[in-house]
């Protein structure tokens, strides 16, 4: 692990410049530029809120705000968008960067690091925009929002652990690239983001415990919407799972590094 951090530090300028160049090229000919990173998720929130708010708002407990459903939805999407974006980007990362991996000598771990940096910047901009929406809707910040820092690190760790594994597998078995987006769609609807968990029948509610994103999105809801402290016991279990997946993915990545270049 220390060698990974040393190599990343040595190539830190390459990582930073790559993130900057990626963002510049993505919006090079766009009039609104980086605003699209904010407009897309907020448009998604607006669509869900218009369609479902009247149905589900009454089922949200302890929210004294007529826009409670929109607040609940934005909080959950802040966690989910970071998680799904990292996995989706890592899924095709090595295939898209195959020529670069063949022609240049650099620590390959820099590639997922660039993805994380780019996704984290997107998530920060989304948070800033959502924060503004929260203020406009009369929902004001509190010191509990500082919990978002460790929660974001937990989302990144879990997403990178899964993303690197599926990204490496996708190099050798391209069907993985078709299956993972479907799984992410199912996973989204299996996570109480667009609906509150109390609409699930009690006899099936225990199934949520098999979903590692459930405690994380619940913590986002507690912090951002209810002003409550996250449930640290459950999050500690998810943190251990995320760390194990991260270590496993790094081991798999290092073992398959040379074979990936040949396969590409």
Give a structural overview:
This protein is an all-alpha fold and 264 residues long. It has one domain. Helix content is 75%, strand content 0%. The protein has helices spanning 2-10, 12-26, 36-56, 68-96, 98-103, 110-136, 148-172, 175-189, 202-205, 213-226, 232-263. It is globular, with a radius of gyration of 19 Å. The chain starts with a helix and ends with a helix. 33% of the residues are buried.
Q: Based on Cα principal axes, name the global outline.
A: globular
- Helix fraction bin: over 70%
Calculate the terminal CA-CA distance, rounded to whole Å. 26 Å
Spell the H/E element sequence.
HHHHHHHHHHH
**Total number of distinct structural domains:** 1
Strand content: under 5%
Radius of gyration: 19 Å
Helix vs. strand class? mainly alpha
Q: Which blocks of ≥5 consecutive residues have pLDDT under 50?
A: none
Mean pLDDT score: 83
Number of continuous helical runs? 11
Annotation, overall tally of beta strands: 0
Taking the sheet with the most strands, its summary is: none
Summary, kept brief:
With 264 residues, the protein is mainly alpha-helical.
Secondary-structure map:
Blueprint (H helix, E strand, L loop, with lengths): L1 H9 L1 H15 L9 H21 L11 H29 L1 H6 L6 H27 L11 H25 L2 H15 L12 H4 L7 H14 L5 H32 L1
Helix pairs in contact: 2-6, 3-4, 3-6, 4-6, 4-7, 4-8, 4-10, 7-8, 7-10, 7-11
């Amino acid at each position: 692990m220390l060698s990974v951090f040393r190599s990343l530090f040595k190539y830190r300028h390459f990582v930073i410049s790559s993130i900057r160049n990626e963002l510049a090229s993505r919006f090079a000919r766009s009039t609104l530029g980086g605003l699209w990173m904010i407009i897309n998720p907020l448009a998604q929130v607006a669509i869900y809120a218009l369609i479902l708010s009247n149905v589900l708002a009454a089922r949200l407990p302890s929210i004294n705000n007529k826009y409670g459903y929109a607040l609940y939805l934005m909080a959950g999407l802040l966690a989910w968008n970071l998680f799904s974006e990292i996995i989706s980007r890592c899924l095709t990362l090595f295939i898209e960067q195959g020529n670069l991996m063949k022609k240049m000598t650099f620590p390959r771990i820099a590639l997922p690091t660039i993805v994380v940096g780019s996704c984290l910047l997107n998530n920060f901009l989304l948070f800033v925009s959502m924060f503004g929406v929260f203020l406009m809707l009369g929902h004001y910040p509190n010191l509990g929002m500082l919990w978002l820092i460790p929660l974001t690190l937990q989302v990144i760790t879990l997403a990178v652990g899964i993303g690197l594994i599926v990204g490496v597998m996708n190099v050798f078995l391209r069907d993985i690239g078709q299956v993972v987006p479907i799984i992410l769609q199912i996973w989204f609807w299996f996570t109480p983001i667009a609906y509150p968990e109390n609409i699930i029948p009690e006899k099936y509610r225990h199934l949520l415990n098999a979903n590692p994103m459930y405690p994380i999105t619940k913590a986002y809801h507690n912090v951002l919407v209810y002003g409550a402290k996250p449930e640290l016991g459950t999050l500690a279990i998810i943190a251990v799972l995320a760390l194990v997946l991260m270590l496993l993915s790094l081991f798999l990545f290092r073992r398959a590094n040379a074979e990936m270049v040949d396969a590409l």
